[in-house]
Amino acid sequence: MAVTEQTVALTAETVARIQEELRARGLDGWLLYDFRGMNPVAGTLLGLPALTRRYFVLVRAEGAPVALTHRIEQQPWGTWHGEKRVYSSWREMEAELKSMLGGVRRLAMEYTPGDAVPVVDRVPAGVVELVRAAGAEPEGSGDLISFFTARWSDEGEASHRRASAAVRDTAHAAFERIAASVRAGERTTEWEIRHWIQVEFLRRGINVGGDSIVAVNANAANAHYAPSAEQHAEIRAGDLVLIDLWGKENDDAIYADQTWMAFVGDTIPERLETMFGTLVDAREAACQLVIDRFAAGNPVSGYEVDDVARGIIEARGFGEHIIHRTGHSIDRELHGSGPNIDNLETRDTRTLIPGVGFSVEPGIYLPGDVGFRSEVNMFIGAAGPEVTTDRPQRRLYALLTDDPFAG
Q1: What is the three-class DSSP state of 247?
Q2: Per-residue pLDDT, 364
Q3: Which residues touch 183 (CB under 8 Å, ≥6 apart)?
Q4: Taking Cα atoms as reference points, which of 14, 337, 330, 354 lies closest to residue 145?
């Protein structure tokens, strides 16, 4: 029988902050449900690992929180400071759940109609049915999740900025290494550069999650291409090179995630320049929408930012070559729990709130031919949104010129 020694860590201070947000949103409560770790939001907020029995925690807009837990699994709740109810049978559980939800009408849960936002949609349909049978109507907790799990602390922001500089400098150094090898007539490959980046990351203090995609030509048309020791391409003069790289300083730090592109030559072919220029325009328009909305005091959601970027790519005739969303949340996880920049794969209606960070990375992919992506990171701080990636790329780097990064 599995036993956990970890105990619940929801503090009175966090409960008070949750209640403040619930009242501001006109919600009666937030119901956290989990079974075997299927809802990481509940585990994160409560500080608990996956448990073997179902539990419910109700934080009402007013009053003490209530936990409904199984009798066989009481040790994790030893530090619980609210009301505690227990059950053994499913009949007891359903009766206690109905009782604890008495008077609750609008209830936040990790649920989205039609699975519109999968990262939020963590509660099984059967549990939603139980809640509705008790007289409450579940609403998506997406904005609450952003507020309580995705916002960066001051040190988190500082760690991201340090990682951002290290990631950018590593990408540029990798391009310089490619150029030097080609000029010298030496053989270099996607795999060799990927391995070099991993070593360089450690030297620069990127100790957790550091890795990269190094892809040339048609390989860059595979958005999740991964060169390996067994399968990789040589990098030669005349090649288009994509380097996507990411990492962070330590487990508690915030990731940086960037994509840079170059041409191994001294003159960029017009076709490549046109496609990359389209992505830059799409990326810049997406970032500017966020900046403009905040300056005007108006909210903006992830799906709206995605629409702007995709609209530009489609208007230039490359719409059929879009295969992924414009961006993703970034926090302590590379793909974080906050709003994604997405109205393609999902319709992310969550609001971009102060304290969250995300990538903006439109892409164009022509299978068997070439692929392009340009990625920067944004953070919404106290002074408003800003691009945290230093000197974002605005043109393809011509690696065999004297100063490929000028301009």
Answers
A1: strand
A2: 98
A3: 400
A4: 337
How far is residue 76 from each of residues 9, 70, 100, 317, measured CA to CA in Å?
9, 11, 20, 56
Give the tens place of pLDDT for each residue, 16-38.
Answer: 999 999 999 999 999 999 999 99
Phi and psi torsions of 405, nearest 5°:
-100, 5
pLDDT score for 57: 98
Band of pLDDT at residue 6, cut at 50, 70 and 90: confident
SS3 238: coil
Contact of 309 with 283, CB cutoff 8 Å:
yes
- Contact in structure between 99 and 66 (CB atoms under 8 Å): no
Structure tokens at 49: 């690992």
User: What are the structure tokens assigned to 398, written together?
Assistant: 């011509």
Question: Under a CB-based contact definition with an 8 Å cutoff, are residues 217 and 262 in contact?
Answer: no
**How far is residue 325's CA from residue 391's CA, in Å, rounded to a whole number?**
23
Q: Which CB contacts under 8 angstroms, 24+ apart, belong to 209-213?
A: 209/246, 209/247, 209/248, 209/255, 209/334, 210/245, 210/246, 210/247, 210/248, 211/245, 211/246, 211/247, 212/243, 212/244, 212/245, 212/246, 213/242, 213/243, 213/244, 213/245
Return the SS3 of 20: helix
DSSP-based three-state secondary structure for 17: helix
Model pLDDT for residues 376-386, shown as the tens digit of each residue: 999 999 999 99
Burial class, 186, CB count within 10 angstroms (exposed 0-12 / middle 13-18 / buried 19+): exposed
Query: Which tokens sit at 69?
Result: 């837990």
pLDDT higher than 70, residue 5? no
Burial of 239 (0-12, 13-18, 19+ CB in 10 A): buried
Q: CB–CB of 179/404 below 8 Å?
A: yes
Q: Can you give the pTM of this predicted structure?
A: 0.93
- Token pair, residue 165, equals 């500089």
- Residue with structure tokens 């505690």? 84
Buried b (16+ CB within 10 A) or exposed e, 145-176: bbbbbbbbeeebbebbbbbbebbbebbbebbe
Widest Cα–Cα separation across the chain: 76
Measured CA to CA in angstroms, residue 68 lies from 56, 77, 220 at distances of 5, 10, 50
Quote the tokens at residue 116: 């519109």
